Amino acid sequence: MFRPSLHSSFNILRRTAPSTFLTSRLTAYRYLSQDARARIQEAVKANPVVLFMKGTPAEPQCGFSRAVVQILDLHGVPSEKMKTYNVLADQELRSGIKEFSEWPTVPQIYVNGEFIGGCDILIGMHQSGELETLLENNGVISKVESDSSSIKEGTAEATSEEPKEKAAS
């Protein structure tokens, strides 16, 4: 008895949901003023590494922000090449950065003006070695010379000395 009426109600909801979602999404983009968008764009391009986080590097206010700071420290990102913004200190920045990047969470990291991602993306890049390559290719950290050639040379020298010692005995 109720089935046809419930079925028709679901169809109405199904038809209206995407358009409602789309309208609210478009409205959300309108809340970020051109001035705010320009200020964020300028901030993102001002330094080689820009981190929008909760708290400061010395006192992160969430575990994800702490993890990002630790990963950047592990890679030796110099403080003069990195600028951080505390989104908890500025509500407009907190909501604006999410709209600017179309990324729903903080922390957010940018390298040379390009949005990289949040904590989960950075952890994955760190584990795969992509983050080190990205930072090196963008001049944020210096390239690490591979020590494999010096190890091989050292091994070759050691093995070449052994026969000399045996020959002398």
Q: Care to describe what's here?
A:
There is one protein chain. By secondary structure, the chain is of the alpha+beta class. It has a domain at 47-141: 3-Layer(aba) Sandwich (Glutaredoxin). 62% of the residues lie in helices and 11% in strands. It has a four-stranded mixed beta sheet. The model is unreliable at 1-6, 8-17, 21-28 and 155-160 (pLDDT under 50).
Characteristics:
single chain, 169 residues, alpha+beta, Glutaredoxin, 4-stranded mixed sheet, 7 helices
Poorly predicted regions are 1-6, 8-17, 21-28, 155-160
Task: Characterize the main sheet.
Answer: 4 strands, mixed
CATH architecture of the domain at 47-141: 3-Layer(aba) Sandwich
Q: Give the strand order, joined by hyphens, for the main sheet.
A: 2-1-3-4
Tell me the structural class. alpha+beta
What is the helix/strand order? Answer: HHEHEHEEHHH
Tally of individual helices: 7
Mean pLDDT: 80
How many whole angstroms does the radius of gyration measure?
26 Å
Give the strand tally: 4
Shape: globular
Describe this structure in a few short sentences.
With 169 residues, the protein is of the alpha+beta class.
Write the layout of secondary structure elements.
Blueprint: H1 3-31, H2 34-46, E1 49-53, H3 63-74, E2 82-86, H4 91-101, E3 108-111, E4 114-117, H5 119-128, H6 130-137, H7 148-168
Parallel strand pairs: 1-2
Antiparallel strand pairs: 1-3, 3-4
